[in-house]
Amino acid sequence: MCVYCKNKEYQSSTRTHTVTINSNVIVVLNVPCMMCSCCGESFYTDEVAEKLDGIIQKAKEMLSSVNIIDYKNIA
Questions:
Q1: Could you read off the pLDDT of 3-13 as tens digits, one per residue?
Q2: How many Cβ atoms are within 10 Å of 54's Cβ, its own excluded?
């Protein structure tokens, strides 16, 4: 159930996930998610969230100001 609009219907989708750590920006494209069919609120499954955490940790090690990563190519 959607925490915002209480809708019970979700659909599979993808989204862009952006994180700012210190002054570095990490952009991960095409991240699989479940999206509310009513309001558009989205959430990640536990498996996707774990992979996303790993991707972000690797990007932090690259020491670049901006990292753009395609989830489909690395997960």
A1: 889 999 999 99
A2: 12
